[in-house]
Specification:
single chain, 303 residues, alpha/beta, six-stranded parallel beta sheet, 12 strands
Length: 303
């Protein structure tokens, strides 16, 4: 298969690129290096001179995740314009499939159990808004060009050297600063990045929008205790509710503080999603994250 991966030097894109390059014809696109080096927020990919540009699948991995300083326009450039420029790069040689990596944050839920694709899109952050906008563009462009589209709404993604919340969690556990709320009982949906490969390798992908999870939804304590075991550090303790509430109020005032009301809600309530549609339509067969937690601590491309 010929596969184009945008953002192939990013967290998820690199995992996919490195796993697929030995068995497929993979074209990586990023703004730092390579034959097709492109800043997709500003330009289309220049495929001039590329022979036999008959692409099977395009995987859109570019994007900007959660930051406290990025503006709405910066999110739009990274999450919407990059996707638009990617798909507009294909003239008469259209791909068979387009896979867009979206996020479960589009639902705007900090809690809830078994949330399915039928739930309304209530995400109000700049990240969620631009992911929703990108989803709409992908679906409209693919429908008008008769291309299969697969929008994957991802939960927490597990892979080596994670950024964001998981990276912060590992760092805090390493230093002995991480703590549980509600005894770490809150469950979270998550997946292994490498499990996405099974979808990318399909020759024909049924068009649709799909939630993805590992089907188990580990709790904070299950995940944190396993990470601590692998790091050889003490397991996190559980913070009393009254103390957490006081610290959260301080964090609401001072942004540098490690806890605020939103984080307290996230860490103390279940937030899981239903991926039955993906299991039925895509034959999604995920691995249990906890049973493969060693994947976090290795640089190998395969589990």
């Amino acid at each position: 298969m010929k596969i184009v991966i945008t953002g192939n030097n990013g967290f998820i894109g690199k995992v996919l690129h490195d796993a697929l390059i030995s068995t497929h014809d993979v074209i990586g696109v990023n703004r730092k290096y390579g034959k097709f080096k492109t800043d997709l927020s500003l330009n289309k990919i220049d495929f001039d001179g590329e022979e036999n540009l008959e692409v099977d699948t395009v995987v859109c991995c570019t994007g900007l995740a959660h930051t406290q300083t990025a503006t709405l326009e910066e999110y739009k450039l990274a999450n919407v314009d990059t996707v638009e420029n990617t798909l507009k790069s294909f003239g008469q040689f259209l791909p068979q499939n387009v896979i867009f990596l979206s996020s479960l944050n589009v639902y705007g839920r900090a809690d809830g159990c078994g949330i399915s694709e039928s739930y309304p899109l209530l995400g109000g952050t700049n990240f969620a808004k631009t992911k929703i906008q990108a989803e709409e563009f992908v679906a409209d462009w693919c429908k008008s060009h008769h291309v299969n589209y697969c929008i994957l709404r991802l939960p927490l993604v597990v892979a080596p050297n994670p950024p964001g919340n998981l990276g912060q969690m590992i760092n805090a556990i390493t230093k002995g600063f991480f703590f549980y709320l509600n005894k770490g009982r809150a469950k979270r949906s998550m997946i292994l990045a490498s499990d996405l490969i099974q979808i990318i390798e399909k020759e024909q992908i049924p068009s649709g929008i799909y939630n993805l999870t590992d089907g188990y939804h580990p709790s904070f304590s299950e995940l944190g205790d396993l990470i601590a075991d692998h790091l050889g550090t003490r397991k996190p303790f559980s913070m009393p509710k009254f103390l957490a509430e006081v610290m959260a109020k301080i964090g609401d005032i001072f942004q540098f503080f490690p806890l605020n009301t939103h984080k307290m809600t996230v860490m103390s309530r279940d937030n899981t999603y239903n991926d039955d549609l993906a299991r039925k339509q895509l034959d999604w067969n995920s691995k249990n994250v906890l049973q493969n937690i060693h994947y976090l601590f290795q640089n190998d491309k395969n589990i």
